[in-house]
Amino acid sequence: MAIRNVREIGEEVLTKKCKAVVEMTPRIKELIEDMLDTMYEANGVGLAAPQVGILKRIVVIDVTGEDPHILINPRIVETSGEQVGPEACLSVPGKSGTVKRPNYVKVVGLDVNMTEYELEGTELLARAICHELDHLDGKLYVDKVEGPLQDVEREEEEEA
Ligand code: ZN
Fold first, then answer.
1. Residues 126, 128, 133, 136: what is their CA dihedral angle, to the nearest 10 degrees?
2. For a FRET experiment, which of 16, 90, 127, 156 has its CA 20 to 30 Å from that of 139?
3. Alpha helices, DSSP H only, in the chain?
4. Which residues are designated catalytic?
5. Contact present, 52 and 4 (Cβ < 8 Å)
6. What is the distance in A from the centroid of ligand 1 to the CA of 159?
């Protein structure tokens, strides 16, 4: 188990477009395990590789704490509806803001065996998928927030 340092807003690595993963390697497997450890340690619901300083198209998401999803080279293929609600980010500590997202998302990506699969999510899972995939293109939720960012007690918010 290894916890990696979570990069914070202002660091250039969070503004870059990530590169696709072309093959699974022991290093990438270790990165994914560390990303899961880091997400759970921080009580986050998702984490993208650039948040630990790696510019690869990999995200981990777990909105329930017992159902981890690993998505490599993910792409959203379908969305519908909308939800407006609070969002936070492990890279923007102590803050939260209101963001509009689709209420349903279908994403296609690769698992750790580089096998393609489909993941559908609604509500928080849909929100987390959108939030994490934005990180892969160097985007943070603070650019989409409606109204001001709020100060929050860290442990009360679900962060990604
Ligand atoms: Zn985030």
1. 180
2. 156
3. 26-41, 123-136
4. 132
5. yes
6. 7
